[in-house]
Amino acid sequence: MSERPLILVSNDDGITSKGIRVLVNVMKKLGEVIVVAPDSPQSGMGHAITIGETLRLEEEEIFDDVQAYKSSGTPADCVKLAKHYVLKDRKVDLVVSGINHGSNTSISVLYSGTMSAAIEGALEGYPSIGFSLCDYSSKADFSHVEEYVYKIAKQVLDHGIPKGVALNVNFPPKRNEDIKGVKICRQAHAKWQEEFSERFDPNGRKYFWMAGNFVNFDKGEDNDEWAIANNYVSIVPCQYDLTAHHAINQMNEDWNWEELS
Amino acid sequence: MSERPLILVSNDDGITSKGIRVLVNVMKKLGEVIVVAPDSPQSGMGHAITIGETLRLEEEEIFDDVQAYKSSGTPADCVKLAKHYVLKDRKVDLVVSGINHGSNTSISVLYSGTMSAAIEGALEGYPSIGFSLCDYSSKADFSHVEEYVYKIAKQVLDHGIPKGVALNVNFPPKRNEDIKGVKICRQAHAKWQEEFSERFDPNGRKYFWMAGNFVNFDKGEDNDEWAIANNYVSIVPCQYDLTAHHAINQMNEDWNWEELS
Question: For chain A: N or C, fewer Cβ within 10 A?
Fold first, then answer.
């Protein structure tokens, strides 16, 4: 057993993406790295898992000096396979996911495969981080963020994060000015406004492409959208207890409980 | 335009499942029903959406006197298609999803396609409910829950729920004793402990089946697991802001911010 931290790496763009290569190279400076990642892109998979279908998992020599596996499963499946099959009883010190090619700020956290791997890590009790670059290009420039990926992962290893929390870290795209710093934020109040492009296949059957416009309703300066727009790295601590606690009392008061009995 | 409430129905077990048929029949007593549901089972899809692939949507005469569409998409896709393509500018009064064949209590809410449709409805500003029966059989007996589906949907139509909240409603399986009543609950603290069954295909290549055991850590009596175990209907109000607000101050205090600058 190594005394270096054991770091599990996954992502949702697939094991051959540029973002995971950058992440693996940074993590090698901090500990022993094991990769379990999807064998193909899984963007938009949310917290999907594979039920009622079989899973593949194969070792792949793709990163220098790093044990790596590709799986047919979702990002959440990959973390489960890593814990219960690949690593078995070994203690994981950090789960990192990404670096995603594209933003996962605000409401996108719900749809994000990158963050589902991190949240799955948090569910297992491991400190976990999802990293995303707000640049959708497969050839995106990650050079300005490597230093921050290292520093943030080191903070988590050295100082920890609250139990059951996964960090949603987003980086501004490469701009002319340097990144201004790091902000701990709340999730911005925003949504995707979809548009469906209607087309016809060669057999005359209708099909659709979904496209979306991001609509930001949030005027605050303490949220992740503000941070990215102003060239800061945003970190939103995320939890997996979805209970809207404020609604419990309100519903107990507002509803007619005689009618419900 | 009808003056009856407009109710959108979706699910994750697919448009031909028994659970959605029961739900449609109950909703017809409360308003005008439109169905947009997956054309095949989508269990465990979490909040997945279809990006980078095309979507199909076709009208299907499957329910008496109800306009219904089946889609190749996920439950979240179905709600988006309903809002932006099928219903366009019509005001939706209620989104209901289910009735799921199987429990969506506690942490299962993260993996649940049923609840992703309801949460997508809440994101659009509509009162939304996901219904699940804690019985996985495709022929499950829903006779003891129809009355509660009606009453709960009626409460939501009459008294509303807080904005941005989706209700996660679970029903106990049919037992010898009657359901005791309805409880507003918090999400129980529990997790799935996976096991991977390793097998070999006819070509000698390894594959896996994922199986899980549910592990409940929660000793409280105010959570959904307790309610179901004690023969109550559980209602957890769920929100889509994942921010762990308590962690923001803690990280600002615990981390070494000089090292991060």
Answer: N
